[in-house]
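Here is one chain, start to finish.
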Amino acid sequence: MENISFELYKIFYYVAKTKNITKASEILLISQPAITQTIKKLENELNVTLFYRTSRGMELTHCGEELFQNIKNSIECLNHCKRLLEEFDCKENKTLRIGGGTILLKHNALEGFKIFKEKYPNVKIEITRGITSELLNKLRDNLLDLVLFTMPVQMDEHLDYRVIETTQDAFIANSSFYHDLKGEKMSIKELTNLPLVLQFDMSSSRKFLNAICKKNKIVLHNSYELESYDLVLAFVKAGLGIGFINKNHILEELKSGELFELNIDYPIPTRQIGIAFNKRNLNSTYIMEFINTIDKNNKK
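Its structure:
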């Protein structure tokens, strides 16, 4: 018993705590077969049965319950020490690497940055802009810590996310240049006759719009195809065309009348803005606290 690896007890602890091999696998980032083999190995070395399976999951035997109660405090104490050390290290010299578009970072994270920096003034924050799919790939490869993005996207099994806001897209125009369209009812097919300012096909916003067009059997012939969402907004404000824009980002412009929403006969579905993180960082105090800060601020 003296030679039994601590890792065996650690895996046993999480299976006992969650009563589910799948959940333990997600927490530990270890395959389910590996966890099953580990439990069998521990049972063989201790020469006892630790679990029995029920319809509710993995239930502890009497021996399993005794073992769990004896190692529980030790493992939880070690986990607590690890979090404290991470937090201490964070306060000293950590870097938080965040990916996202300029508009999302400005509207959904700016206040969160301020609050977080007040608590962790020595944490350096690095911002990376790019296409959502590329940013999520960097997150998966641990080149980023967090990514703000607009759904829907295809999530990687190693990533998790939290929804921070529900948004509504619309076709938006400048009142000074397209005042004749203001208040006019029009079909979504009539958009094909208008000058459009859109993001290129690889963007999540454009993919969402393309799916709507496919459903309505139309093809949009855009006058401008731009790399970034903030450029689309800038071009629309300059009167260069009609853009597909998140209304949450232009509330002041809509209220002042500078911009207006086209009255389209097709109800555009809502979307969600999320913040993604790598599952391996679930126990990282400063990353999870930043996520909680952003989440809380967006739900005020």
